[in-house]
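WARN no homologs supplied; continuing
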Amino acid sequence: MKFFKNNHIGVEMSKIAVVFAASGLLYGTAAASPQSPGTGTLRGRITIRDTGAPVINASVLIIQLDRSAMTDSDGKYEFRDLPPGKYNVISHMHALADEMQTVEIASGRSTVANFELSFAPLRQDITVTATGHTETAFDSF
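OK structure emitted
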């Protein structure tokens, strides 16, 4: 630290650099931490079938485990620490048709399940009730 006239400032700057370097190492190990032994990972990407554009904030549900995740800005999702087995996975986004896949998770392995969703046809629900006597539509409400 030759550039500082006050050696005390140079020592403090090197302490700060060591703290930043150590915190970067800790962050890196936390981000790359391995999954629990005996479990697997499921990841994938959800796109729109016709354009290939990512579907942002779509929900992905593993039915048997009742676990869900949301897609990020690239349409990607990930589940960690899944027990081995076969699972039904559903992707859902309003105005797009839901899609389901059956996936098999293996211990210590990563499985990929990509979804291509298409626009859903317009659907309307109509409820019909009966009272046993004639009434106008206005009176039925």
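The domain at 40-117 is CATH 2.60.40.1120 (Immunoglobulin-like).
OK
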